[in-house]
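Collaborator request log, item 7. Partner lab (contact: R.S.) asked for a structural prediction of PAP2 superfamily protein to inform their binding assays.
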Amino acid sequence: MSREVPPADADRPGPGARLARIVTEVTAPAVLVSVLTIAIGWHSSQGAGRGLAWGLLATLFVTGIPFAYILGGVRRGRLTDHHVGVREQRRVPLLFGLCSVAAGLALLAALGAPRPVLALAAAGVLGLVVAVGVSHWWKLSIHAAVAAGTVVVLVLTFGARLLVTAPLLALVGWSRVRLGDHTVAQVLAGGGLGGLIAGVVFATLR
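Returned to partner:
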């Protein structure tokens, strides 16, 4: 199999690279998933305060604990950066994240969390299972997968008016390719996978 090479301008400095870095940080999986989980929790409960509490509890397991593990790995020198840009380093953080989300899902179910919150966590579990498998041989874009899943969940939850968030997909994909972190194929595959999982799992279980 031939190795895909990132675009030649990926390392070229300039406004484009700076903008791409900002987009990558603002739309990082931990950021998008945290905001989405809190929004779904808030929307899924009759009381705003109770819904927010469900969202925050779910966020602890789906992003808080996994991201803390990654930051610890960076500080100890086991991981190169908080995006885990080296494919060979991704397996353990992804497995840790999978265990955290699965544990959170079990706890949320036991406590009687709203179905949309459980559905979102379940989609996260399946997404991480696939990511763990694929990362063994290919650097799938998790940024793109999460962005696509976020758009799908927002549209399913709040209606077609949230299609205005669709340009987010192109922006995230451009930033990952511009920085040389992914190829176009890796971005497209990640986006397709994330959208499919959200469209099937979240839509079915919510």
